[in-house]
């Protein structure tokens, strides 16, 4: 009985991820600008900007996060809020986005239990080459996260902009589309 329940839950999650991936494959990411009803944050020292819905709130992120905004709870999920955060690091002069993205991703499998990359896309953010990657992983408390990251390089800085929701959301495709829209407003300096 418990095994059957586990299998139904697994099939539901797998079906949801398959539907989401299908939807996301139909809509390639492209450069976006802030839309009406959104606010724009510009970092006072680093100069990057990012836009997000007015209903979201800027908050202090964990160590290493230079900007974070919290949104609503994912549909049908309690105790978690969608969010977007920005991190950066100084990188060797001349490092390209492909090398930085590969170096950055190499640690994700070590940090995140059950890390599974679903897809990645290459695009331009203003005049900067970027990679958008989609993946899932499971926290220690069993919550499976769905994350989308925009990775880009501007001069001697490597940026990672992460949007997060949960795979348990009943509106995962809509939430992923919103997170991509937010990530695509990122403008490095």
Automatic annotation (TrEMBL):
It comes from the Bacteria. InterPro entries: Mog1/PsbP_a/b/a-sand. SUPFAM superfamilies: Mog1p/PsbP-like. This is DUF1795 domain-containing protein. It comes from Candidatus Segetimicrobium genomatis. The lineage of its organism: Bacteria, Bacillati, Candidatus Sysuimicrobiota, Candidatus Sysuimicrobiia, Candidatus Sysuimicrobiales.
């Amino acid at each position: 009985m418990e095994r059957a329940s586990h299998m139904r839950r697994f099939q539901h999650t797998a079906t949801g991820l398959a539907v989401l991936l299908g939807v996301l494959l139909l809509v390639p990411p492209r450069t976006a600008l802030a839309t009406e009803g959104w606010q724009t944050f510009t970092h006072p020292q680093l100069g990057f900007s990012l836009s997000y819905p007015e209903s979201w709130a800027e908050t202090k992120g964990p160590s290493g996060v230079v900007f974070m905004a919290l949104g609503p709870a994912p549909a049908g999920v309690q105790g978690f809020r969608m969010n977007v955060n920005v991190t950066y690091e100084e990188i060797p002069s001349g490092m390209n986005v492909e090398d930085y993205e590969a170096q950055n991703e190499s640690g994700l499998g070590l940090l995140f239990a059950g890390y599974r990359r679903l897809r990645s896309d290459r695009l331009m953010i203003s005049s900067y080459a970027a990679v958008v990657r989609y993946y899932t992983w499971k926290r220690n408390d069993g919550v499976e996260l769905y994350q989308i990251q925009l990775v880009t390089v501007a001069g001697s800085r490597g940026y990672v902009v992460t949007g997060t929701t949960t795979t348990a959301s009943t509106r995962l495709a809509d939430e992923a589309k919103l997170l991509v829209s937010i990530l695509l407003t990122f403008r490095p300096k």
